[in-house]
Amino acid sequence: MTGKRKFTRTAIERHKTSLREAYIKTLAQRFYTDEQGTLVSNGLSTELICFPSDVQAHHRPLLNIKIRNALSYATQFVDVEVMNALRHVSYYNPPNEYLALGLYLYFADEFSRKRSTTTFLSAMREAGIGLKAGERFDRKSLKEKTQNALGLDESHSNILDEWYNNGRYTIQKKLHTCPPAGHPLQGAYAQLAHKISKDYTYLGMNYAISYALGNKDHVAALPAEEAYKRTEELAGLSKEAETLIKKGDHIREEKIRSTIQNTFGAVPATAATEADEAQKQARSILSILPDNVLEILYLQGYMFAYSNRPDIKQCYPADDLPGISREQNQLSRNSKATRQSRYRMFFLSNGIRSNPTELTDEVLRNMVVGEGILHESMHLVIDSLSTEERNTLRIAVEDIRKNGRFPDSHNTQLRTHDGNTLDEVMDYQSRLYTNYGKNDKNPVDTRWEEVACNCFALMHTEYAPSRQVRNTPFNDFSSLQGVSRLINEAVEKALLRSRAQFSHVMLPNHVNGK
User: Fold this and answer.
1) Three-state DSSP class for residue 315
2) What is the pLDDT of residue 44?
3) What is the rounded distance in angstroms from the CA atom of residue 219 to the CA atom of residue 232?
4) Across the strands, what pairs with 32?
5) How is 242-272 classified by DSSP, letter by letter?
6) Is pLDDT of 486 > 80?
7) Are the CB atoms for 44 and 209 separated by under 8 Å?
8) Which residues contact 8 (CB under 8 A, 6 or more apart)?
9) What is the mean pLDDT of residues 244-261?
10) pLDDT, tens digit, for every residue of 350-377?
11) How far is the first Cα of the chain from the last one, in angstroms, to the nearest whole number?
């Protein structure tokens, strides 16, 4: 018998249920409960947030995922402060990024040849040379500090001077420059930088760092002329360059693993029992989320750190996360929930309660934490929208306020937003969103976005269909009906875009009992 296989409606629903259960089970394994996160680095711009339970056997697959994500993270120049500084030594602003990355590769090779006990990146960091995104700087001072950190010879200073004055440089009498549009880059190191990084949406350091480590032993014993000739060959032989990158990846991974083991030490004796209890609560929280959000979080590799307290201080790292101001780190610690996209991590808590005894209600506590996940997930959704799609949603959210107050029957205090009414939460001009308005520290007004995120969270917590509440504001008021429709459309768009972007991610192992 030939032809397409037919599925009954019952079989389709059974598969959907099985898939939902698999997402919940898999995401629950990515939950950390009442553990303090620690920023772990291999000293080579590869960083991840780890927890004490990461050294336990049941978290080994999770740790492997985190390490792979950290290694493959396409670190932009603005995130690697040393690279950002080297780039802006150049007179030209902004200078060509491939030329800047090529210069990094050259200095990395020169350290392998002449200062093998350290790396160029480490020497720059030890000298305190870095430039945060948007930070003011003195170009001449950056150049002088970089020259001192090099500690090599006059020829290297000449190369840096040429970069400083002209936005180009000469290595082994070969000019490295960016010709007019439509013409290839000139110079072996610039061409190599393009070859090993051309797949990135945003040019980054990941492949370059691994390449330099993998090439270290090969280039160490070569004279300058032969080192350059080798680079010319590698710029035209992608397979050999890929082999060096893989070798460097392995070095970086092993360094991360040993650092994690040294940071956390032995596994606690009570680990297995504590893990079982945490899994039960995690599944209860995740069961609040709709199918599309579960799939998005699974595809994008998100993890969760939950603190059974009023804020996230006890799970957020004690040391400030790089690329974020000290003030912003502190604001995050004092918050109910936050998302750190670079580390694929949600930090969650119960939030401050005027009546703390309410949180003895396990259903309410889980709903509050689920509300935090949904709120932060909606930020992730909004990030995926086009400018036009964002504007359409923004206008609809801001229009809620124009329709006046909700009647008293719908304007009682919300359980998930302690002490706040529906009117306050749905009004982008209310006192709740003062800190999100446009000001000196916040160049963009994001009040509407906070309302949209709260709206989405309420749709699936206090006003969720599963609670069987017939008369909800999302049913009764046209302004909220319109916003909820646009939000649902946005989430579906984000899901389709996640499926395309993360098409390599396999289904969970737990589908149909596997």
Assistant:
1) coil
2) 56
3) 13
4) 305
5) HHHHHHHHHHHHHHHHHHHHHHH-SPPTTHH
6) yes
7) yes
8) none
9) 84
10) 988 888 777 788 889 999 999 999 999 9
11) 28
Closest listed residue to residue 107, CA positions, set 52, 163, 62, 56: 163
Which residues lie below 8 Å from residue 65, measured CB to CB, with a gap of 6+?
Answer: 301
Kindly tell me the burial class for residue 379, based on how many C-beta atoms sit within 10 Å of its own C-beta (0-12, 13-18, 19 or more).
Answer: middle
Task: Give the Cβ contact number of residue 412 at 10 Å.
Answer: 10
Question: Taking the CA of residue 37 as centre, how many other CA atoms within 13 Å lie in the half-sphere pointing to its CB?
Answer: 29
76, amino acid identity: Q
- Produce one character per residue of 130-167: b if its CB has 16 or more CB atoms within 10 Å, e if not: bbbeeeeeeeeebbebbbebbebeeebeebbebbbeeb
Check residue 285 and give its pLDDT: 95
CA 76, 386, 433, 306 torsion: positive or negative?
A: negative
Number of CB atoms found within 10 A of residue 217's CB: 12
What CA–CA distance (Å, rounded) separates 112 from 133?
29
* Biggest distance spanned by C-alpha atoms of the chain: 82
pLDDT (0 to 100) of residue 513: 45
The CA distance from 463 to 448, in Å, is: 20
Which residues lie closer than 8 Å to 258 by C-beta, 6 or more apart? none
Residue with tokens 């956390």: 264
Q: How far apart are CA 132 and CA 81, in angstroms?
A: 5
Residues 6+ apart with CB under 8 A from 266: 55
- DSSP letters, 318-373, are SSPPTTS-HHHHHHHHTSSEEEEGGGTEEEEE----SSGGGGG-HHHHHHHHHHHH
Q: How far apart are CA 431 and CA 478, in angstroms?
A: 24
Phi/psi at 169 (5° precision)? -160, 160
User: Structure pTM?
Assistant: 0.74
Is residue 89 within 8 A of residue 140, CB to CB? The reply is: no
* Centroid of chain to Cα 421: 33
